[in-house]
Amino acid sequence: GRCDDTSAGGGEDVLSYTCTDAEAVDACVKFALDHRMLVEPACGAALAPIYSERLRGRLLEELSGMRQSSSGDGDRGSSAIVVEVCGGSGVSAELLMEWKKQFLE
Fold first, then answer.
1. CA dihedral 16, 86, 32, 3 (to 10 degrees)
2. Rounded to whole angstroms, how far apart are CA atoms 47 and 31?
3. Considering only CA atoms, which of 34, 46, 30 is closest in space to residue 86?
């Protein structure tokens, strides 16, 4: 869903989503394969809209709607997707594989 984040200083549109544990773990696994970096499921939740087809579809649909509603508003027609990636100190390859078995198999 959308929220208007005025605390960020510019009233930027912020899109937020809720993902399942399985989507968070799946994003961790895919991120590890793509970038050779381990992250915890809390970070996987932030990555889920990038890696989950269900969430990515919602994200792109909302971004498209934002572009259409803000046409003629200068830079507002172009959107950037920003994901802050952090939180790998509490994860190992073994733990990630355990989560994969628990949530994805």
1. 10
2. 8
3. 46
Q: State percent of the chain over pLDDT 90.
A: 52
Which residues on neighbouring strands pair with residue 15, listed in sequence order? 2
pTM to 2 decimal places: 0.76
Residue 97's Cα: distance from chain center in Å?
Answer: 21
Q: Distance of CA 8 to CAs 2, 42, 48, Å?
A: 14, 22, 23
Look at residue 15 in the predicted model and tell me its pLDDT. 76
How far apart CA 44 and CA 26 sit, in angstroms, is 8
Gyration radius (Cα) of the chain, Å: 16
